[in-house]
Amino acid sequence: MKMLKKIVKNAGILFTANVMSKALNFAYVVYLARYLGASGFGIISFALAFALILGVFADFGLQPLSLREISRNKNEAGRYFSNIALIKIILSVTIFFLLVFIVKCLNYSHDTVYVIYLIGLSIIIGSFNNFIYALYQANEDVKYMGIGYILNSLSMLAGILATAYFNGNIIMFSVVFLVSAVIVLLYNLTIISYKFFKPKLSADLKFWKKLIKEAVPFGLVNVFVIIYFKIDSVMLGTMKTQKIVGYYNASYRIIDVLTALFPSIIFSVVYPKMSAYIELPEKLKSIYIVSFKISLIIGLIISIVTVFFAHYFILLIYGYGYHEGADSLKILIWAFFFICISSITSSLISSVNKQRLVTITAGVGAVINIGLNFLLIPRFSLNGAAFATVITELIMFLIYFANMIKFLKFNRSDELSFFNFSIGSI
To answer: What parts of the sequence cross the membrane (predicted)?
Structure first.
């Protein structure tokens, strides 16, 4: 009962913070989309996707590794922080120079180039914020994480409104992303200093070797995940137009908000508990079953409602200028459904040191997604990209679920109970 109360409390804190921050995020995204139009919003979305694909290497699995290890041994938090922070600084500098080199080799417009640079820097700084959030999660003190979310959203909204008021261009809007990331980083460093330990940098090379070795599977998963979540925007921008990217990302932003509000919160609260109960399989099974059922119901209800009202949602949120993205929302919402039930399943597998399986599955998903995008985008444009995402999520869920049944040693009764609940929900 005590464990359940702790989970519910942390879930409540994160849910409240996420609702507030995502509402603010959605407000500035909608305002930005309306202000810039589909083409300008497409450039911002393209830059975000491009920078995220490279930016994932600035962490390369160190954040989820620190979350798992600090959850198991909180006394080692300072050691993990000081060493990982220095590794991340080295990775970040390297990745940014690589980003500059790649962009200079490609024939992008002046505005697109500088938007990519600025947003790339913001994403790299944001990876440090996510690393610090892992410390909060591991210590089950998620209120600081919630405040960080809200602070970022408020600074973004204020910056975008101010930039629009002064008739700023697309480059100035990109500066807002960078400034907001810096503000949140300063906040996080202050919290660490006063509530946890004095931040410092360490170079324990023997420890680095261990960290990098264990982080690689997590890092590969993150690379593959970013690829199959963001490569569609990059490919749409290359094979179609920035306006099409704008339409597609208007729908995708809705999926992002829903994912952040539901599966991400459940993961943030449950993953530390799963990691802690690695030696207690019955408790692990109990946590998984409850989390899966909650995720299934939430995902199904939201998906069905969205299919019926997709056009109304797009017109209400973005205006008539984005109506061509409504059909893609009807398709993409089923990716959200599979994310709901897949994320909790992959979290279980990661929490018990089965990163290799998660890595392989994510790699399979990335390859399938790229292949499907090549096949479907030329013919079906943004709807083809949406179908590719849904099919990829379905395949990955089936792989995760089949292995979860084996790991938790589900008996026939457990399997029937799961099947009956799932069918009954549908």
So the answer is: 12-33, 39-60, 80-102, 114-135, 147-166, 172-194, 215-231, 251-271, 292-319, 331-350, 357-376, 382-402
Return the pLDDT at 426.
Answer: 53
Q: Which residue has the tokens 């990109």?
A: 174
Confidence check: pLDDT of 53 > 70: yes
* C-alpha torsion 268→274→276→282, nearest 10: 150
Q: How many helices (H) and strands (E) does the chain have?
A: 13, 0
Q: Locate 354 and state its tokens.
A: 């089965």
What contacts 206, CB < 8 A, 6 or more positions away?
A: none
Give the span between the Cα atoms of 371 and 269, in whole angstroms: 34
Residue-number span of the structural domain to which 393 is assigned: 2-425
Q: Return the higher-pLDDT residue of 12 and 309.
A: 309
Global pTM?
Answer: 0.79
* Alpha carbons 369 and 227: distance in angstroms, whole number: 8
Residue corresponding to tokens 């892992």: 134
Compute and round to an integer the Cα radius of gyration of the chain. 21
Give the span between the Cα atoms of 347 and 7, in whole angstroms.
16
Mean per-residue pLDDT, 206-213: 86
Domains contained in the chain, number: 1
Q: Identify the band that residue 226 occupies on the pLDDT scale cut at 50, 70 and 90.
A: confident
Please return the burial class of 241, using the count of CB atoms within 10 Å of its CB with bins 0-12, 13-18 and 19+: middle
Amino acid identity, position 337: F
Q: What would the pLDDT profile of 319-366 be if each residue is shown by its tens digit? A: 888 988 899 999 999 999 999 998 888 877 877 767 778 778 888 988
- Which residue is associated with the tokens 């897949």? 342
Task: Answer whether 17's CB lies under 8 Å from 151's CB.
Answer: no
User: Pick from 188, 207, 189, 185: which is nearest to 87 by CA?
Assistant: 207
Residue with structure tokens 């982080």? Answer: 215
List, as one string, the DSSP characters of 95-108.
Answer: HHHHHHHHHHHS--
From the CB of residue 308, how many other CB atoms can be counted at a distance below 10 Å? 10
Give the amino acid at 334. Answer: W
